[in-house]
Design brief:
The chain contains 14 helices and 7 strands. It is mainly α. Strand 3 and strand 4 form a beta hairpin. The protein starts with a strand and ends in a 5-residue tail after the last strand.
Length: 369
């Protein structure tokens, strides 16, 4: 394993020296992807507690680890992104996408008084961009610092007025992690996590202090990335929790889902009798196949146009993923090719098969053997 020292400098900031390690051995500590995974699990525990077990304070306590870790990752993302405008656009886009699942999960309807954390992080990036526009690459002065702080305070005020989750201290935490980026890791961690913990008055907020533990093990490496997975996880898990909560409180709907939306027999389009089980229906194949004969009348049946559209979209998405991985994977990283290339292809066929089992209608086959 080889290593070399690189001096990193920032305008108006003292230089620091870091070690970039090359070789097959993994760097010690936690990379960015691992930090996000820890924060995502913590957030999921908190949201499960809030929706299903509100009296279980320990779940809220563990859930508070997520905020400072995610805030740290946002500041690191802002520092290292190739395009800060696109970074802001992504956060803003997912703030819009996440709002309905956020409202449904926590209120069961549309609530304009409180907005999701994606909006908070988008506002935090705006605050950092304003700060840089005033402070960065310019000779430090008290006036510029005051103007920069005023700009950040203005964004914090907007967060309070909009009802963004974690309001001003969410933005303040990201900003502290950013302005202390040239300090030692333990200093960044203590300042950022300390600010979050002190600003929260709820008893469970003290759980934020434990966010220091993973952050102190950060090794300044990106990891596998999985950028879009983490973006999609936020609205996705909220939507799933809302649906589960709805089912738990609507027993009649559960019966409808089981007996009507997922029938155990499917109708032959020729004789009109329910002769196909879900597995038999899926094995009939699509419109380009010769299908399977009806056990009653013998007419061959296939899954209809909806199946053709869904399966085509799934396989096209898998193919595009394989193309992207082929050109973007790290040289010599066969595991990455296997994970992001083969798995999407298998997933496309499995999801398509499940779709044909439970959704859509059968039609008579056009192709004959």
């Amino acid at each position: 394993m080889m290593s070399r020292n690189i001096t990193v400098t920032h305008s108006s900031q003292p230089c620091r020296q870091i070690t970039v390690t090359h070789g097959s051995q993994k760097a010690a500590g936690l990379n960015g992807t691992q930090l996000k995974l820890i924060a995502a699990v913590s957030m999921l525990i908190d949201h499960i507690g809030s929706i299903f077990f509100p009296a279980q304070s320990w779940m809220h306590f563990l859930g508070r680890i997520a905020m400072p870790v995610f805030a740290f990752c946002i500041s690191e993302g802002y520092i290292h992104t190739h395009s800060r405008k696109k970074y802001l656009l992504r956060l803003g886009l997912f703030a819009v996408i996440s709002e309905l699942p956020f409202d449904l999960a926590f209120t069961g309807g549309i609530d304009l008084t409180q907005q999701n954390i994606m909006l908070t992080f988008a506002l935090a990036v705006i605050a950092l961009m304003l700060w840089d526009a005033i402070i960065r690459d310019r000779k430090p002065s008290y006036l510029r610092v005051i103007c920069g702080l005023a700009a950040v305070a203005g964004v914090c005020t907007a967060a309070v007025l909009l009802g963004a989750d974690y309001t001003f201290f969410g933005i303040g935490t990201v900003w502290i992690f950013y302005v202390t980026r040239n300090r030692a890791l333990w200093e960044r961690t203590v300042c950022g996590v300390g600010f979050t913990t002190l600003m929260r008055t709820a008893h469970s907020a003290s759980g934020s202090t434990f966010g220091m533990v993973p952050l102190l093990f950060y090794n300044y490496r990106r990891g596998r990335g999985l950028k879009w997975l983490f973006y999609a996880f936020y609205p996705g898990h909220l939507l799933v929790l809302f649906l589960l909560n709805t089912l738990l409180h609507m027993p009649k709907l559960r019966i409808i889902l089981i007996t009507e939306m997922i029938p155990m027999k499917y109708t032959c389009p020729h004789c009109g009798k329910k002769t196909f089980t879900p597995v038999q229906k899926a094995l009939c194949g699509g419109m380009s196949s010769s299908g399977k004969p009806c056990p009653e009348c013998g007419v061959r049946c296939v899954n209809g146009k909806l199946s053709l559209i869904v399966n085509s979209v799934l396989r096209l998405a898998a193919f595009l993923m394989i193309i992207i991985v082929y050109f973007a994977h790290e040289p010599g990283n066969k595991k990455q090719i296997l994970l992001y290339g083969v798995v999407p292809l298998i997933a496309a066929f499995v999801l398509g098969f499940l779709f044909d089992m439970f959704i859509g209608k059968l039609t008579e086959a056009i192709k004959r053997e």
